[in-house]
């Protein structure tokens, strides 16, 4: 810089030395500039080449693949189908109903296919009229607080935003819900209403199944009226074909590489041996149980606290989320099924879909053994649905037993009554039915085809990730009861978890799990007061909430009032987390601890009674403190009674009529100030 600046100081002075210096400087500058330009050109040339080359293959792949795959219209045309049955399913029941409806179609000279809305482009609904005698049926379950199931979320979003003309679409909807929940069958009702708004033609009225009553009977009643309506609309008649149609064919593997055989994995083969994130429903993480302790001091029940190690899993969770675990069936039940059917359970087999165009190649991961299928993949403890009994009836060699099975699977009032009393109320699972019908000995492969999938079980997480980032805590009670037939029935997941032994190598301490996000969240501002109501194991998420509020307080944050209403049977029997709650209260994090012991006195006392007792304080927190209310536990009685108590408090102290008080509480829910995490 100095050399270049010097000549400008006095342009009249020039010497041979300075001229030579200038010449050498210019030549250096020339070399520098030429090098710079060459370097930039070279860099640009190669950089440009990279930019052109790298995206080439992905571009071609992404454009070419989905056109055929996600068009259900193209698939229906290709396979000669005219009825498509979409399902929004969280636990597999809606999918099961969809499969049953699609199989029904052949009895009316029609051809159906069940379809997961997540796998297809639903905007194609406007094109369904291109297919003769076509219609779409929707079996839609409602999940949580009126939400769509995970696999129907995209469909729900599309319906909300769509301005498509569906005037050529014929449709019907069957909803699956539970009347104990606030938003009964919200998803089924919404789909039915929205499709009509978009111009679609309803062929048959909306069906509303209630899992709190008898969902199976609701479905059968709707179905037996649905098909005549379809026949009338299309001018077709029942063909009279009532024969059993197998969906899968059995292939027995006599000489198979055992490294290619599934041993309980949910998705990718060997995923339990070679774990790779991200972890979800199809790729669960194998978490080690590091603690499993009994929480209650007495009584017949077994209440437990488990801790799952999620170190190195990259799993993140928030207080209020749910942990899903994949349990295994009791080996003694599996062995008894094998013995009664005279089967070698270690036979390796595959069940292959006879419809080669179907996206679902197998009913569960194949190839696998019968033992693995009955242990990890199939539900053998719940009472089987009527379609299973219908299909099995053909294998009963005793005429009386065959007639009984067919009757229970029929839509006749007498048959429905028999199914309700002999199967549902007696809680007969498939093993009990086989034991009580000695002539019924179906082929095990057909039984495996018919049984529904064993589902993941969900638990409210009883810890805060702020305090326990590498660990997820569960609070659960083992389910065990005697049936009307004198059998002892045990809950699959809770009894399986009970036997998980910490610090042991092998599967005895491993739990396949993943985290499901929830809307059950602490207020954004730590200073906002919270009123938590959770009797029994409903206390689980509140242990996480209180841990988090304690952590926030330690960080110097201003934490609002933290109020807990907890209930159990007896103080010295099943008072869960007693020491922890006392410590939190002593530290000033838990500002109010109200505990109802329902059976420690002649008159039963529940959480709603304590809310009424403290009604002035409750109203003050709600009205002046803008408190958030959280309710966790039993939906059928507790949650409803608590909600009614809030109606009374709001009505009394807010000087409102009953309808106004109801509206006030409903608005709290809409604003996220009254949250529920309940089960029935």
TrEMBL record:
It comes from the Eukaryota. Keywords: Endoplasmic reticulum, FAD, Flavoprotein, FMN, Membrane, NADP, Oxidoreductase, Transmembrane, Transmembrane helix. PROSITE patterns: FAD_FR (PS51384), FLAVODOXIN_LIKE (PS50902). This is NADPH--hemoprotein reductase. GO terms for molecular function: flavin adenine dinucleotide binding; FMN binding; NADPH-hemoprotein reductase activity. The keyword Methyltransferase does not apply. It holds the Pfam family Flavodoxin_1. The keyword Flavoprotein applies. Residues 282-523 form the FAD-binding FR-type domain. GO terms for cellular component: cytosol. One of its GO terms (biological process) is response to hormone. Its EC number is 1.6.2.4. InterPro entries: CysJ-like_FAD-binding, FAD-bd_FR_type, Flavdoxin-like, Flavodoxin/NO_synth, Flavoprot_Pyr_Nucl_cyt_Rdtase, Flavoprotein-like_sf, FNR_nucleotide-bd, NADPH_Cyt_P450_Rdtase_alpha. The chain crosses the membrane at residues 25-46. Residues 83-227 form the Flavodoxin-like domain. Its cofactor is FAD; FMN. HAMAP family: NCPR.
